[in-house]
Amino acid sequence: MRRRGHRITVSLSRPPPHQTRAEDRVSLREKIGLGLGRVAADGSGGTIHVLLSPIYNMTLGMNPALISTVVFIQRIWDAVTDPVCGQYSDNFRSRWGRRRPLLAVAALPTALFFAGLWWTPPGLGDLGLFWFLLGMFVVFHLAHTLYAMPLTGLVLEATDDYHERTRIAAVLMVFGYAFQVLSQWIFPLTQLAIFSDPMTGLRWVTGGCAAVFFIAGLAPVFLCRERNYARVASLQPKINMREGIRDVLANPPFMRLIVARVVASFGYNIVGMLGIYMNTYYVFGGDVRAGGWFYGYLGTAYMAAAITCSVFVYPRLSRRIGKRRTLQLAALVLMAGCVSKLFVYHPGLPWLQLVVLVTNGAAGSGIGLMATAMMGDIADYEEWRHGRRNEAFLASIMSWFDKVGGSLGSLLGGFVLLWIGFDAKLGPQTEHTLRLMKFSYFAMPFFGALVALLLMQRYELGEEKVYEIKAELARRHAAAAPAAT
Fold first, then answer.
1. What is the pLDDT of residue 116?
2. What share of the chain is helix, strand, coil (3-state, %, to 5)?
3. pLDDT attached to residue 234
């Protein structure tokens, strides 16, 4: 290997596949701990996403544009708190490390504020619901960010092996999606006759979820270790925000991954809420109860496809063709699913929707899994360039940009419903509204996935380059160890 400035020259001949060394493998205990942490982080956020429209719009009658405005403000709030919490975790020092103490502190408020979202005071109108939802979103997502950023940092530093990172990402995807299979049934469960009314059922069910999130949130504290704290992080000076942002924005592979995720997130979120509306109003003619139960089956199919592909498909593909091409293939699958939306939605034929949900699950798991696996490689690249480990800050910047794209999409999503003429009070919608709903549901995610596919074409951190960076970092750590001692 030859270095010129910050460039690495790699031979054009393809070497034999790299094998993961025993010392680079992460134990089953740690993988379970990280996976349960993902249940707390992704499960709480994902359940809110599943319940928000059915509860606040379909049940309480809140204006969808107001819901979109709350989500937009929350995403902007996240965009502020993510880098702050990420940098705080990277700079935090204690006898127990820089990740686990923060996880222990944030687990309980994350669970409590999740449960509080569904205890709406009676008799609130649109404006009252707006302020209640906004206030609860702000406090929940502050606690959630304080948990999620250290957890992601812990994940990224778990190993420095190219392929083991993909395996860890697959475990995290399985744990996260496994709980979200259950989350698809929360809204139908609130309709059961054993509860006096749907809101009472909602509070019982989400209270149980909050207990699960708290217990799962503590698992990484006791089951995981901080691999880089003693040998690297505790020895390095603290990084100020301006310097960290400057270095990150000058990181080419990171910026390509960021822009691809932003575009894909925007394209999905601008019409993401239309999935349940297409099922309820296009297929079931406005029957909220029947549509809600069937959407549970659709959500389960989505998660089952995601789990299957995360375990059996994408890790093998990544080893054969690399992470970049695997991510691009997942984007192609998403585009195919978008095209199918134009043909499979028919009133009275609900099972045809499975084509869309299965392809979306397969595509979403691939994009998310590869992006997570790539972040560890990018963290090594950043240390190679500047000699510092800042995994949580890198994750927070990724989250910042991702949420900017998502927040803009979510803001416009409610207005898309108004533009197409949707009105929940009407029950069955007009033919014109349903036709515009179907086209909107197809177009935005399709073009977002297409742009992301093209942007990733020049992503440069392939397997060979990552292993060369790893070898260089190992030499640096070995040389620095006597001085540190």
1. 92
2. 80, 0, 20
3. 52
For residue 245, the model assigns a pLDDT of: 79
Q: Report yes or no: 230 and 485 within 8 Å, Cβ to Cβ.
A: no
> Could you count the other beta carbons within 10 Å of the beta carbon of residue 185?
18
Residues in the chain: 485
Question: b vs e for 205-220, b when ≥16 Cβ sit within 10 Å of the residue's Cβ?
Answer: bbeebbebbbebbbbb
Which CATH number does the domain housing residue 102 bear? 1.20.1250.20
> Is the pLDDT assigned to residue 62 strictly greater than 90?
no
Q: Please indicate, yes or no, if residue 6 is contained in any of the structural domains.
A: no
* 155 lies in some domain: yes
Is 3 a member of any domain? no
CA atoms within 13 Å, Cβ hemisphere of 25: 7
Strand (E) or helix (H) holding 7: strand 7-9
Rounded to an integer, what distance in angstroms lies between the CA atom of residue 432 and that of residue 436?
Answer: 6
Partners of 7 in beta bridges? 4
Q: Are 384 and 473 in contact (CB under 8 A)?
A: yes
Cβ(383)–Cβ(473) under 8 Å?
Answer: yes
Q: Is 151 helix (H, G, I), strand (E, B) or coil?
A: helix
> What CA–CA distances, in Å, run from 49 to 44, 120, 186, 223?
9, 17, 12, 29
Q: How far apart are CA 41 and CA 85, in angstroms?
A: 15
Residue 239, classed as helix, strand or coil, is coil
Structure tokens at 169: 């990402």
And the tokens for 273?
């809420």
Domain that holds residue 49: 26-225+238-484
Cα distance between residue 57 and residue 55, in whole Å: 6
Residues ≥6 apart with Cβ < 8 Å to 200? none
C-alpha 465: how far from chain center: 27
In a domain, 15, yes or no: no
Task: Say if residue 250's pLDDT is above 90.
Answer: no
Which single residue is written with the structure tokens 């992601």? 152
The total number of structural domains in the chain stands at 1
Query: What percent of the chain stands above pLDDT 70?
Result: 91
Which of left, alpha, beta for 15 (phi over 0: left; psi -120 to 50: alpha)? beta
Residues facing residue 9 across a β-bridge: 2
What is the C-alpha to C-alpha distance for residues 422 and 363, in angstroms, rounded to an integer?
29
Structure tokens at 12: 């054009």
- State both tokens at 349: 């034929």
